[in-house]
């Protein structure tokens, strides 16, 4: 009989502000600890531009929230100390955190710069009782690195993440199957992972106010309200069901991707499709340039409140076609996006194989062959005369959501 899964979710408390504070104290032990005063990371206090990326606990008491404009935060708290972000420092602090976590298991998923999942199922017996080990990790991070984390313990990733969001800072919480009804179901529906503002409002309109209400709701009724796949996903989540494995999200040089921060938040599907098309063009062109194919397409989004989500699908046949990548990207977005305004969209192509090693589709149509030839011709023209030498009509609108992406993107 296999042991019950044991997943830890590590979440840095007010990450950017904590890391900024630690860095300043490392340089000057007599420096003022930003965590003890109303302070925020992000933007420019002098020009009053930018947004709040992180805020201190004292700043929260003034009602300052992550993602709001600096000018608005300063109106709430005129004495707010605002410091610019230094992502090079934050990346190093994140690396130091991951080094400590790797002492406990090789099965780590870096979920974001300040979050990670640990699959402790196979290694927990080496260290002791789960809660004791979680507290050991929390205490090591504080003593060795100088900042605090919350640790969630659960049988799957969803429940571990929910647990780590319970009371903060510097605490460990459990959320096992027999604790769901007491600890999770009474929470407001908006607290459930993957439920954005749009889905929350739709569910509230039919009387679903708590996670427990969602768990008790007939999933067939939800399908009509939210769409089949998204309804099934969040209903499973409300019931504490999540079978996703802990794995590396962003393996280096195993895929091609591009993302863009939008000129304004968008909440309609047609505008988002325009952004996807621009991104898919650069991803497809880079695949063709390197003579490789992808077997998996992933769409990533970040909403106006800095919540990130991603969804992926495996293709029937490997491809380098912009049209095919775009088709699947649009389907993915429609399946998992609930309409909450977006500030960033990304597309990744993974599971890369050499062009000549793929199995040809016996059912490839004449139209699809012509499409491939057209895409290669466009690549040739753009390489010779520049990206703007051939542009789609949708990129000529006056009210463009995003400039046509001309960069080379990045390996993922």
Provide an overview of this structure.
The protein has 412 residues and is α+β, with helices and mostly antiparallel strands. The protein folds into three domains: 1-173, Reverse transcriptase/Diguanylate cyclase domain (Alpha-Beta Plaits, 2-Layer Sandwich); 185-238, Orthogonal Bundle (DNA polymerase, domain 1), CATH 1.10.150; 255-411, Dna Ligase, domain 1, CATH 3.30.1490.100. The chain has 14 helices and 13 strands. Strands 5-6-1-7-8 form a five-stranded mixed β-sheet. A five-stranded antiparallel β-sheet has the order 11-10-12-9-13. Strand 7, helix 6 (157-164) and strand 8 form a beta-alpha-beta unit. Helix 1 (15-27) crosses helix 4 (87-101). The longest helix has 21 residues, at 269-289. The chain is globular. The model is unreliable at 249-253, 356-365, 387-399 and 403-412 (pLDDT under 50).
Descriptive key words:
single chain; 412 residues; alpha+beta; Alpha-Beta Plaits; DNA polymerase, domain 1; Dna Ligase, domain 1; 3 domains; five-stranded mixed β-sheet; five-stranded antiparallel β-sheet; 14 helices; 13 strands; globular; disordered C terminus
């Amino acid at each position: 009989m296999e042991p019950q899964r044991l997943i830890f979710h590590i979440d840095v408390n007010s990450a950017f502000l904590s890391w900024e504070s630690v860095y300043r104290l490392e340089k000057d032990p007599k420096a003022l600890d930003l965590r003890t005063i109303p302070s925020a990371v992000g933007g420019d206090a002098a020009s009053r531009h930018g947004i709040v990326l992180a805020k201190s606990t004292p700043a929260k008491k003034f009602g300052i929230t992550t993602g709001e404009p600096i000018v608005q935060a300063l109106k709430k708290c005129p004495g707010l100390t605002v410091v610019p972000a230094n992502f090079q420092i934050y990346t190093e602090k994140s690396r130091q955190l991951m080094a400590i976590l790797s002492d406990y298991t090789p099965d780590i998923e870096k979920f974001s710069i300040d979050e990670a999942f640990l699959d402790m199922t196979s290694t927990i017996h080496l260290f002791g009782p789960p809660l004791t080990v979680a507290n050991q990790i929390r205490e090591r991070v504080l003593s060795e690195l100088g900042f605090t984390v919350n640790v969630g313990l659960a049988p799957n990733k969803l429940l571990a993440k929910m647990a780590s969001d319970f009371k903060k800072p510097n605490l460990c919480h459990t959320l096992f199957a027999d604790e769901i009804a007491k600890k999770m179901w009474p929470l407001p529906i908006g607290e459930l992972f993957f439920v954005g503002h749009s889905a929350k409002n739709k569910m509230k309109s039919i009387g679903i106010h708590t996670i427990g209400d969602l768990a008790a709701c007939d999933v067939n009724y939800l399908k009509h309200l939210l769409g089949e796949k998204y309804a099934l996903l969040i209903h499973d989540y409300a019931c504490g069901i999540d079978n996703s494995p802990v794995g590396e999200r962003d393996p280096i040089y195993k895929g091609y991707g591009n993302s863009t921060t939008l000129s304004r938040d968008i909440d309609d599907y047609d505008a988002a499709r325009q952004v996807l098309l621009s991104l898919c063009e650069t991803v497809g062109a880079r695949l063709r340039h390197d003579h490789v194919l992808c077997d998996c397409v992933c769409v990533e989004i970040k909403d106006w409140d800095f919540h990130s989500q991603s969804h992926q699908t495996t293709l029937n046949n490997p491809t380098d076609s912009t049209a095919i990548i775009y088709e699947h990207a649009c389907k993915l977005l429609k399946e998992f996006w609930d309409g909450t305004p977006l500030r960033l969209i990304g597309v990744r192509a993974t599971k890369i194989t050499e062009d000549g090693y793929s199995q040809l589709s016996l059912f490839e149509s004449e139209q699809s062959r012509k499409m491939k030839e057209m895409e290669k011709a466009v690549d040739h023209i753009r390489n010779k005369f520049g990206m703007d030498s051939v542009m789609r009509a949708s990129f000529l609108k006056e009210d463009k959501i995003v400039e046509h992406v001309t960069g080379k993107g990045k390996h993922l």
